[in-house]
Amino acid sequence: MLSQQKLYFALDAEAFGNFIDVLKDLGYTVYGPAEKDGAIVFEILDSIKQMPRGLYDEQSPGRYRLTKKDNQRYFGYVVGPQSPKYVLYSPQHLLFKVRKDGRTFIPQPDGKKIAIIGLRPCDLKAIEILDNVLLKGPYKSNAYEAIRKDALFIAVNCVEPGNNCFCTSMNTGPFAQSGYDISITELLMNGSHVFILETMTNKGTEIVSRLKCRNATEEELNVVSKLMEDAKNKIRKKLDVENLKDDLYRNIEHPNWNEINNKCLACGNCTLVCPTCFCSSVFDSSSLSMDVAERWRVWDSCFSIDYSYIHGGSIRQSIMSRYRHWLMHKLATWVDQFGTFGCVGCGRCITWCPVGIDIVEEASKVRD
Amino acid sequence: MKEKSTLETAQEVEVEVMRKFSVEEVFKETPDTYTLLLKPLDKKDYSFVPGQFNMLYAFGVGEVPISLSGDPDEKYLIAHTIRVVGAVTNALVNARKPKFIGLRGPFGNGWPLEKTKGKDVIIVAGGIGLAPLRPAIYYILKHRKEYGRFFFLYGARTPNDLLYKKELKEWKSRFDMDAFITVDAGDEKWTGNIGVVTTLFKHIKLDPNNTYAFVCGPEIMMKFTVLELRNQGLTDDKIYISMERNMKCGMGLCGRCQFGPYFVCKNGPIFSMDQINRFFGRREV
Questions:
Q1: Per residue in B140-163, pLDDT tens?
Q2: Fewer C-beta neighbours within 10 Å, C or N terminus of chain B?
Q3: CATH number of B6-107
Q4: How far is A123 from chain B (nearest CA, A)?
């Protein structure tokens, strides 16, 4: 149900372009959804024209297709292959440059403020989870903190969840509960096309006050409430999380784990699209003259054989053990490490797995 | 005022930023293992607790986790014992006079040297696993009266592979510790024990209620040592082992050193067996 204490505003879809302008005027670099190479990705938005109006994504295990529909929703799609970690925790980041004599250059944050439009509730939760990993210590990632601390998050509630979504099981959606500055529900009714806005922070309220909004009508709010209920009911995929951690720990040698050896390609797609996968490697190089060396942090995947390499060989040789490590991390060990699951139920790993391996199915196979 | 012990002075340091050290001396311990003595170029002291490790950076080649192997009371000459197994370790020991070696650390927890005061301690090391234990041996010998009986078991593949040969001789000759050394395969000059390190347990009798064990070596060696310690009646909460995993950051951010629910770099590298017995010895965890 909608909160009685909150104020809800309505913004005409025609005026939505103004939203981007207001953010730009306030000095934000605005990231938002755009179609690129047949998928919805986060791009820097200059104008509303870049947004994927009327585009929908069909998702099923191992399948993602964009289709065009007649209605003119801006947020008709569910989630694309990119999660907000692309923007917040760059796939490659220069840690330092050092000269042969030891003089070191550490790149400083550029002070850029970013706003992200179109974060789904599961992605908001994923950011909260990344905060736990990268900021709560004992050590933190300075690069992540620099971009994260002033970031503005504009969430979009899900009224048409996808086939691979299971956010209701992970308690992360389909409507945003926390972690946003402004939330949006897109409403198409009786020929009118409006966004119902709600704010969580002062920053968000200030921005909304600069838009040409009116108060939302009671009729509109009733529709939002109904959409909220409907969205929950549309989510078919369910993961039973009760005792999940203990079940997985107990079944670490379950014979069914071995079945994955015949399916998983160890390509690492699931870890790249996962909004919470944070593992990284470093890449060292030096200039040809050997005077200057660089060290880069790059995203890494626990599916690579190098990931667990110590002298003498990799710890996790079999694909089974790498898949088991990943799944156990998401649904069991993460709980002990950071107090939440490492999975938000966005379904990306299912969609983008080239052979359609489904984490929900696999987890249930090794529980008895 | 009572002087602060080494264990208390280990400082919180800014470990994200690499400090530069010069290589003062290189000792060849075995055909493939070297001990490097590093001196801080910034002239600031450096402190650690026994069992911790550093990330050492070779210019342009890369960075690896290496245990601190020296005396924890030595603040300006920092020892690391390095076995050459890859590009970075090779660069670290062969660059006889590089301009600098980058160092971040110390990372990780340490051996439980405070909590074991008043108790018997047994140290079991295999191969280069002796390196992170040597600071603990120094510490115990320096504070010898504060501990009960002290056992030391060490095994290597051949006499040539034994580290710290001078010190081994000294430790064997001491009356305040029981040191036993063995090799898997002897040579024409070797007159000592033959066999893996667990065969040394027949020489000793531990008091299971009053003894703590510190173990470091290859995982398979630790697995069988733990079995021997249990045979002698030690419970898992009294057995501490030092784990090894791939590491890139040392700060719990890169994720690579995960071992079950633990990050070896920030929760370890030293774990009590009752913490990890659910995972330890399982294949590919």
A1: 999 999 999 999 999 999 999 999
A2: N
A3: 2.40.30.10
A4: 20
